[in-house]
Amino acid sequence: MGHGASRLRRVVREVAKFGAVGGAGVLVNLLVFNLVRHTTDLQVVRASVIATVVAIVFNYVGFRYFTYRDRDKSRRTREMTLFLLFSAIGLVIENGVLYVATYGFGWNTPLQNNVFKFLGIGIATLFRFWSYRSWVFRALPAREPAPRTGPAGHPKTKQQVP
């Protein structure tokens, strides 16, 4: 089996793990959103931002310890900073969709709120997948094969002809 097939399997596994954590994060997000909407008087977008923040924390734990547990862990401060930066951009995308639907178009029934919250999550998820895998949870550098050694442990070199 070639390198391409192996790479494809790794990407499919990564997408599946990302999807499992992300799917659970979507449920957390929607449950918290609806809980806050039905137990407080907060405006819809404020309730959504709270739910998004809870889901971001949930997702970080899932991504770091499940989806990307084999990735570089040497620079946690950098990882966390980039995760929060890209999560904040995702939060703006996600809640921007809900804001425009609610206040721009007046679509403000509970069903409409959930539909546009879900649509915003979907659009933001595409951005998050790309940014997390590209910038946050970086792959470990490929290991170079150990140099082959000749007699007495010296590296083998090609014989040079004078």
Please explain how this structure is put together:
The chain is an all-alpha fold. The chain has four helices and no strands. It has helices at residues 3-39, 44-67, 76-104, 110-136. Helix 1 runs antiparallel to helix 2 (44-67), helix 1 runs antiparallel to helix 4 (110-136) and helix 2 (44-67) runs antiparallel to helix 3 (76-104). The longest helix is centred in the N-terminal third of the chain and has 37 residues, at 3-39. It is elongated and about 55 Å long.
SSE map:
Layout: H1 3-39, H2 44-67, H3 76-104, H4 110-136
Helix pairs in contact: 1-2, 1-4, 2-3, 3-4
Strand content: under 5%
In the predicted model, the low-confidence regions spanning at least 5 consecutive residues are none
Mean pLDDT: 87
> What would you call the structural class?
mainly alpha
Biggest beta sheet attributes: none
The DSSP helix count reads: 4
Rg, alpha carbons: 23 Å
H and E order: HHHH
Number of strands: 0
Task: Tell me the overall shape.
Answer: elongated
Share of helical residues: over 70%
N- and C-termini, Cα separation: 43 Å
Brief overview:
72% of the residues lie in helices and 0% in strands. It has helices spanning 3-39, 44-67, 76-104, 110-136. The two termini are 43 Å apart.
